[in-house]
Amino acid sequence: PPPAAVAVAAVTPPAPPTTTAPRSTEPVSWQAYPRQYPLPQFLAAASPAPDAAPQPGPSKEPAVEDAAVAPVAAAGGDGAEQSPTKEPRTKLAADPTGVMLSVTQDLESDRIRQDWAASGGSIQAFEASGGMTLLYKDLSEVAGEGSYMSGVGFNIGGRINFLNLTPPKYETRDRNWVAFKVGGGADLGALTVTINTPSYNIGGTQIGGKSTASMTSLTLVGTVGFMYAFGSFDSPSDWSGMAVGAEWAPSRQSNTMTDSQSGESTTTSSFNATGFAINFESGSLQSMAAKMGKKAHLKVRLFFLPPVGEMPFMMTASLGTVWY
């Protein structure tokens, strides 16, 4: 579930002032009340933008996630590739953190990946994703009648990868083969959170009212991966053995935080080069080479978080696809 479910508990506006002397001569702002308004931390946690450091590594499910599309080839256990299924697969999961519903449909273009894994050559893989997040919390009990917090966020992303495989030849009894891929992509995310509380004028100072903060995030991701296999032919058409693969997904992320009251914007950037993994495989040529690319599919996901306790109501919808 989105991390906003944890972070939002900290967003607690101050109670409306009484008729006594004002407690502060400064206008209410996110900076003036950092404990009551920790929006920078909240935005960083709740933003639907992808993670700054996508990590390659083993994955049992071919999935394009809502906020971050995994940029490197999935690697899993050995097994024969299955043809795309015509019926969509539905999964429903519920626990105290929320309810998740996902529907996945295999795409016919996955046959291109399977044919490539069996005969070699070069192909292109494409990924795209998009999502939206809505949240709402009634703050009347802690900040006065009519108080509330609302937010909306979105994200879009895309990847393109080039895969190449030089298969072994039975005529020369080749014992080794090499496959590699290179590519990249980008993800853009944005989130805006608004807190509305009763407005008071005390001693010429405006207290409360509407305050808004927003954050945008841009992530650039590169992909480099290879697989080296060694083994032998069991028959003129069947090759089996073992393989070792390495994957690297460096990324650069830039975040911009904007406060509506002060009008100030703060931009931070970071580079992450630790997205690295080493994988070991065994099996046939096709079963191992196919893991260099994700299975072609279309996935729709819905996440619901009920407004329990300090948590707001939250709904996230996303659509992701991989094709060849």
How would you describe what is shown here?
The chain is mainly β and 324 residues long. Helices cover 10% and strands 52% of the residues. Strands 1, 2, 3, 4, 5, 6, 7, 8, 9, 10, 11 and 12 form a 12-stranded antiparallel β-sheet that branches. Strand 1 and strand 2 (98-106) form a beta hairpin. The protein is elongated and about 90 Å long. Residues 1-55 and 57-80 have low confidence and may be disordered.
Structural class label: mainly beta
User: What is the count of helical runs?
Assistant: 5
**Low-pLDDT residue spans:** 1-55, 57-80
Total count of strands? 12
Shape: elongated
Descriptors:
single chain, 324 residues, mainly beta, 12-stranded antiparallel β-sheet, 5 helices, 12 strands, disordered N terminus
Short overview:
By secondary structure, the protein is mainly β. It contains 5 helices and 12 strands. The N terminus is likely disordered.
What's the structural blueprint in terms of helices and strands?
Layout: H1 4-7, H2 39-46, E1 89-95, E2 98-106, H3 110-119, E3 121-138, H4 140-143, E4 148-166, E5 176-202, E6 205-235, E7 238-248, E8 251-259, E9 265-272, E10 276-284, H5 285-289, E11 297-305, E12 313-323
Antiparallel strand pairs: 1-2, 2-11, 3-4, 3-12, 4-5, 5-6, 6-7, 6-8, 7-10, 8-9, 11-12
